[in-house]
């Protein structure tokens, strides 16, 4: 684990707590559950970013329209599937202590998490 990973978790915790304050469908019962959720989000999003990066690289290297189409479909599946995975894992590990809303609120949450992470990393660099 690197220092940037710890910073990411803190950024994710702040964003998640902000969402819990602003959006009634996002519920986190305590700071500890927000922190655990942030760690879970960090782990899932790191894996998703790596997978997406590989798929995009395959798309760019694709020699045929069929290969590009397969990569595009794979990218869409990973993009949608990652939100479902986040919802499922959160429910499995934290139950009723955390509710991230539905697919669209999780999508917005993930976009804001990634933007906040990029902003803080740019600020620190």
Question: What is this entry, summarized?
Answer:
Helix content is about 80%, strand content about 5%. It has about 120 residues and is mostly helical. It has one domain.
Keyword list:
mainly alpha; 4 helices; two-stranded antiparallel ribbon; 125 residues
What would you note in describing this structure?
This protein has one domain (3-124). A two-stranded antiparallel sheet has the order 1-2. The protein has helices at 3-22, 31-61, 65-94, 103-124, and strands at residues 26-28, 98-100. By secondary structure, it is mainly alpha-helical.
Fold topology:
Elements: H1 3-22, E1 26-28, H2 31-61, H3 65-94, E2 98-100, H4 103-124
Antiparallel strand pairs: 1-2
Helix pairs in contact: 1-2, 1-4, 2-3, 3-4
Strand order of the largest sheet: 1-2
Q: In terms of structural class, how would the helical and strand content be classed?
A: mainly alpha
Instruction: Please report the number of helical segments.
Output: 4
- Overall geometry comes to globular
- For the record, the count of structural domains works out to 1
Provide mean pLDDT, rounded: 92
């Amino acid at each position: 684990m690197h220092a940037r990973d710890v910073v990411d978790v803190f950024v994710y915790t702040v964003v998640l707590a902000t969402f819990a304050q602003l959006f009634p469908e996002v519920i986190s019962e305590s700071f500890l559950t927000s922190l655990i959720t942030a760690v879970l989000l960090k782990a899932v999003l790191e894996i998703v970013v790596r997978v997406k990066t590989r798929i995009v690289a395959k798309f760019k290297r694709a020699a045929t329209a069929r290969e590009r189409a397969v990569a595009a479909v794979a990218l869409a599946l990973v993009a949608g599937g990652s939100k479902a995975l986040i919802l499922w894992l959160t429910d499995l590990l934290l139950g009723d202590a955390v509710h991230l809303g539905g697919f669209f609120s999780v999508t917005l949450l993930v976009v804001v998490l990634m933007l906040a992470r990029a902003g803080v990393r740019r600020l620190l660099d």
